[in-house]
Amino acid sequence: MNTLRLDGVPVTVFALSLLPLWLPVLLGEAATRGTRARVTLGVTVALVLASFAVNGPVAFGALAVGLTLQAFGAGTDSRLIRSTLLASATCTVTTALALVFAWPVIAFVASVLAVTLRVGVMPLHAGAVALGDRSPAAQTQQLGATLVLVLAHLRFTDHIGFAYDVAPMLVVLGAVATLVPGVIALVQPDLRGFYRTATAMHGGMILASLGAAGRGHEAAALMVVLTTAFAVGGLGLLIVALEARVGPVRFDRRGGRVQAFPRLAAGFALFAAAGVAMPGTSGFIADDLMLHALWGESVAATVMIILGAAALAVASLRAYSATFLGPAVASVAPDLNGRERAATTVLVVALLILGIVPGLLLTPADVFLNLSDAP
Amino acid sequence: MLIHTTLALAAALPLAAALVVGLRVLVDATRPSERWVFAVVETSLVLSLVATASVAAQWAGLIGDPLRGEVSFGDWLRLGDYYIPAIALVDAAAVALGTLGAMLTLLVARFSRTYLHKEPGFVRFFTLLALFAAGVQLVAYAGALDVMFAGWELIGISSALFIGYFHERDEPIRSSLRAFTTYRLCDAGFLMAMVSVHELVGTTRLAALQDAATLPAWEVEVIAGMLLLAAMGKSAMLPFSGWLPRAMEGPTPSSALFYGGISIHMGLFLMLRVAPLLAAAPIVEYIAVAVGLTTAFYATSVARTHSDAKGALAHATLAQVGLILAEIALGFTTLATVHLTCHALLRVFQYLRAPNTIHDAHRLGHAAIVHPHPSASPTPGRLLRYGAALHRLRLEDRLDGFIAPVLRLARALDAFDRRLRGAPRAESV
Fold it and tell me: Does B355 map to a domain?
């Protein structure tokens, strides 16, 4: 019996996951690049197995290996971060075992929990937030792996009556977890605070979309997680690049850096705009699909998500203004270098293609995910 | 086939220009020259104008049979029963706005080339202008609420960034944030209406909005109310007028295009588009008339006390916009379309002329025009009205009063979240 099969949708999602997974390695410091590349290579192999596996236990088993490798290779000695990532990996092991023993409810719950811990859904966001604080680049990498995790969830654990029944509850929880960080983002005193709340807010959206996926809206969930991986991941990479040049950025006075770093400012603006549903980017389609998916489950949750996204949009413009606008400040540090420009452009182009011709991925993905076998 | 090509080009060309310039800024290590940027953007705007003129000719029957109604491009996205229709609606209002938008944008682009020569933000200005032009064409010819919302958002984002154009000073940045906040909060109404129309009617096609009128009365009232909210934000109607005078911080050409010509009228265009829905929602109709007339009265009063040219012009514009909203709500849609078009043309001219008017007044020594006061001792009522107009009813203070509790709540939530994570307390900014 074949354990692996090359279908178009998993191949595409796997290829897309390579962007947030490998771009931080290519942009990292030369001293740590070798170690990081070896860990990422191991994670990539695990993700290949997870993406192309035709049954759930193999997929989640491979994911458990990959996520464990990521937990130890995140480049941080923080116990909180490591235990969060390991807890997420343990959840995937649980999912794999539950699928082997045909306990679909446990598989579903463990899988949702694994995603929740990784994307930092409030109130389980302490670990993911700490990772974003310590190393936005590692955060971007783990968002890449989360793409494959969500794909596995949508393929192997989502097609059960329990997922259908708990959809409204997950949607409401996700909506609250979207609105709260969206509002908190308005009062953040620094760039890291903005990034932290933006990550948590997108985590809430992912949870809500996973809830809606239980009622057949898998494509919406896939688009939401793709947008998060590229937009929030891109923001993370640019924050690393900016802080390497100017140090931590606070909002107590205008930064005035747009003259010195025009490309960095343009990339930041594009990622931030994609994260809050700018038309032409995948964020617009993700929001549109998700809101339609949520409306059927809970009108109140839909309103909360709309307001949360509006609050984050205002916070994004505030962060951009405070970081880049204002009286020009001279800098001896250069703007984005060639590799950074290439990485930014690749992510921006991916966001644009998915936003302008979303059917390229979503139409086959919708068919593929709806035809996936129940466990 | 011709109509498909021309409609697509009208919006796609400016969008492509914005993408080309934007990606070059991102990829190329050297800053693109003014000449190159202007050539790319101007070419796209000229071709877009030719395309819209061709659409207008086809609509009028000058090329083949008159073409009216929906033009389908298939689906932007289809997933099972759910779809986002890529559909255009060609009618008098669409042709009027599409042609007017393309013409005025090109005019302002030509004007701005000299006006902004050697400005540090030259490239940014023309990239945003192309983005705006694409947004206007999307809104004008949209045959579905989803497509219209995409254009609507492009206009909102470019508008906010234009207001903060002179970002070396603090005030334009604050004004930009204020305008963007108003837009996003009011756009929540558009989004909710769009989703609810899709769920209740089964499609977001504008031509199908007649079917929405058959829904239960309260549902129609709620949807129409949400769309009115979006229109009020975009067109700076009371109580959301506070951002308009602050928007004058942007460069004069963008003020002319946005707050004299096109953007300020977008809310009215939305109301024209959803007129069948509005006609089935009498309560919202009454509210729209009241809002329109109150805004007209307020803006007239403020315009008479304003001491700067662009601010007075902004309120004079707003007074007419209020009247047009009342016309639409009263069912005079043809009158409103004509009023809107003529008003946009006049105001763009006045805005573009504003710096010269000030210059002339200073250099040519025009005598100050002093209107003799009608009575030697003004009545308390007249003084009260004068004071209220001078302070713009303290609208911004009142709105800030609504926002302050939200920010207090945000700080409390942030403190709670930090305690939960064991993180240090934030120093407020």
Answer: no
